[in-house]
Specification:
Elements lengths: L1 E6 L7 H17 L4 E3 L13 H4 L1 E2 L2 H14 L2 E3 L3 E5 L2 E9 L5 E6 L20 E5 L2 E5 L8 H8 L5 E6 L6 H15 L2 E6 L1 E4 L2 E4 L3 E3 L5 E4 L5 E6 L3 H9 L2 H4 L8
Parallel strand pairs: 1-2, 2-4, 3-5, 9-10, 10-11
Antiparallel strand pairs: 1-16, 4-6, 5-6, 6-7, 8-9, 11-14, 12-13, 14-15
Length: 260
Amino acid sequence: MRISAIQFAITLGDAEANYNAVETYICKAAKENADIIVLPEMWNISFYPDNVRQLADTEGVRTKAFLSRLAKKLQVNIVGGSVADYREGNVYNTTYIVNREGELVASYDKAHLFTPGKEDTVFTPGDRINAFMLDDIPMASIICYDLRFCEWVRMAALTGAQMIFVPAAWPNPRCSHWQILNRARAIENQCFVTAVNSCGDAGHLHFSGHSMIIDPWGEVLAQGQDTAQIITADVDFSDVAKIRNKINAFKDRRPCIYDL
């Protein structure tokens, strides 16, 4: 299966420019025979303008229609990174996932909000794992800061996920953490990880890029630099079973002793 990660410089507060850019990138990745195309975090308005509530996509109507149209037209699966989403008086950081038929198969609200950046004062957190199937393969997704919470990622892996997607807006000073944590999550959960970051600037933030596609051994199959690009790798999901049979960490777990 071919995975393509779209890393680009999202324009702060300019939804029109960003939807246009994403459509161009998705079409380009589809021409290169991608099976799954993955977007970064908050690709509709970047992370994040002061008037995020006014700019957010109400109930994800525009985003869902946009992703559905492209997925059906191009016959690709799309893991829609995340967008600012306004619902019932609250703003969420939300992932929408559509299959090749343009059907919405899953959505996810970011569960862990980055308090040093005061994200918790703007957004409302989600509280459920996001597990789904694409092309009959079990998968899951989280968003950015969720990556630091290994318990949450393990819960996603325990659904049977063979791929975990990590859309992000990860800043430059902590790029090494981004690389290490994504590889660690792949190794400890013995699954593929596709981690898609943005690049460029948003106000005082500089996003570090370095999107990655990682195999269950923690080997990096493809990695971007710090500029706009599409990162692509072909993955063989039979590798998951091979590795889990060789070192069966899931079988050897002892959850009965993990209760604090």
